[in-house]
Amino acid sequence: MLLEDIQTFGSFLINHHGIDQSAILEALELQRKQSVPFGRLAIEKRYLSVENVLRVLAIQIRSTKRFGEVAIELGLLNEVEVIQLLELQGEQRKKLGDILIDMKVFPSDKRDELLDAFNYFTEARDKHS
After folding, report:
1. Could you tell me if residue 128 is inside a domain?
2. Pick from 45, 49, 85, 104: CA 20 to 30 A from residue 2's CA?
3. Which residue intervals of 5-107 are DSSP H helices?
4. Where in the sequence is the domain holding 117, given as residue range(s)?
5. What is the spatial distance between Cα 59 and Cα 73, in angstroms, rounded to a whole number?
6. For residue 60, what are the contacts with CB-CB under 8 A and spacing of at least 6?
């Protein structure tokens, strides 16, 4: 599957259900701001010390690399640990649909309907690609 073929829930809402693009962008920014930082999760899970998180951040700030990439390069984390932390970060992230409900873009019962439509759309698209 090509990157251009990937349909996110946000773009699906814009392209197929007339949700305003600015609302999606605002919700995505709120989602990003509310995410637990990767380094904090690494400390909480006792994978890294505060000192090592600061060490990674000092290098990361001068590069385009993600926290996990830098931590692996420094030998502070392995790939399995990075994947576990990314999964945990994703689980703790507030879902886009829930943020849009909080913003009163649509009611909660509409979210479930839209998610069902999105899942149907992506399954049908995947069968034909």
Report:
1. no
2. 85
3. 9-17, 21-34, 38-44, 50-60, 67-73, 79-92, 96-102
4. 8-35+95-122
5. 11
6. 66, 67, 70
pTM over 0.90: no
| Exposure letters 93-122 (e unless 16+ CB within 10 A, then b) | eeebbebbbeeebbeeeebeebeeebeeee
The span from the first CA to the last CA of the chain, in angstroms, equals 8
CA torsion angle for 49, 54, 55, 58 (degrees, to 10)? 170
With respect to residue 17, please indicate whether it lies within any of the assigned structural domains.
yes
pLDDT tens by residue, the chain, 129 residues? 333 444 689 999 998 899 999 999 999 999 989 999 999 999 999 999 999 999 999 999 999 999 999 999 999 999 999 999 999 999 999 999 999 999 999 999 999 999 999 999 888 877 776
One domain for residues 69 and 30? no
User: Do 50 and 61 lie in a common domain?
Assistant: yes
Q: Is residue 46 part of a domain?
A: yes
